[in-house]
């Protein structure tokens, strides 16, 4: 993992400018915790995971970012990822994600406005690709995300069918 220093010594923030930079020029997909939230299961996350195609062409599009000490080859290696900033507002630039191939994921992407004031749009992994990536990662948090995404999807389907979703134990003293 590489951790370039933001230019001007400023830390990343969750500003519209930061998000606009992230999606400025080239296909990128939001993955991780923000994608989990997008697909109906809100949760806290410490970073923004940005998945892009790992090749020199796409790396050149991403490299226009405001950061020092980073070269095109740093972004073209699918085995490396780059972290900008620090948690809780870090951006992880991911040239690969387990269980998901970029071109196929791009074809299935879900686009949405993420800032109403500016009209800024972002593309997210579709629900099935997000679940596949979480299963491939296999960490406890990722597997919990899979269960929560599936439960949210089932609840939505039941509500649409006019049925009552099953009761959950969310917020019970035993959790």
In short:
By secondary structure, the protein is of the alpha+beta class. 37% of the residues lie in helices and 17% in strands.
Task: Give a verbal description of the structure.
The protein is globular and about 55 Å long. The longest helix has 21 residues, at 140-160. The strands form two sheets. It has a four-stranded mixed sheet with strand order 1-2-4-3. It has a two-stranded antiparallel sheet with strand order 5-6. Mean pLDDT is 76; it is low at 1-14 and 171-175. Helix 6 runs antiparallel to helix 7. With 175 residues, it is an alpha+beta fold. It is built from seven helices and six strands. It has helices at residues 16-22, 32-38, 56-62, 72-76, 102-107, 127-137, 140-160; strands at 28-31, 47-52, 82-84, 90-94, 110-115, 120-124.
Biggest sheet statistics: 4 strands, mixed
Q: Strand order, biggest sheet?
A: 1-2-4-3
Q: Indicate the low-confidence ranges by residue numbers.
A: 1-14, 171-175
Report the principal-axis shape.
globular
Content-based structural category: alpha+beta
Brief descriptors of the model:
disordered N terminus, 37% helix, 4-stranded mixed beta sheet, disordered C terminus, 6 strands, 175 residues, two-stranded antiparallel sheet, alpha+beta, globular
List the helices and strands and how they pair.
Blueprint: H1 16-22, E1 28-31, H2 32-38, E2 47-52, H3 56-62, H4 72-76, E3 82-84, E4 90-94, H5 102-107, E5 110-115, E6 120-124, H6 127-137, H7 140-160
Parallel strand pairs: 2-4
Antiparallel strand pairs: 1-2, 3-4, 5-6
Helix pairs in contact: 6-7
């Amino acid at each position: 993992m590489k951790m370039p220093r933001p230019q001007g010594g400023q830390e990343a923030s969750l500003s519209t400018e930061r998000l606009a930079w992230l999606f400025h020029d080239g296909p990128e997909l939001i993955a991780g915790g923000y994608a989990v939230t997008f697909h109906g299961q809100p949760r806290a996350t410490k970073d923004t995971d940005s998945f892009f195609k790992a090749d020199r062409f796409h790396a050149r599009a991403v490299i226009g970012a405001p950061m020092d000490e980073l070269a095109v080859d740093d972004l073209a290696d699918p085995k490396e990822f780059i972290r900008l900033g620090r948690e809780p507002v870090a951006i992880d630039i991911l040239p690969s994600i387990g269980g998901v191939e970029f071109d196929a994921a791009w074809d299935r992407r879900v686009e949405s406005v993420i800032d109403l004031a500016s009209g800024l749009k972002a593309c997210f992994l579709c629900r099935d690709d997000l679940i596949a990536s979480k299963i491939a990662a296999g960490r406890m948090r990722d597997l919990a995300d899979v269960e929560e995404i599936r439960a949210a999807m089932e609840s939505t389907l039941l509500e649409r069918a006019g049925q009552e979703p099953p009761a959950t134990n969310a917020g019970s003293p035993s959790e």
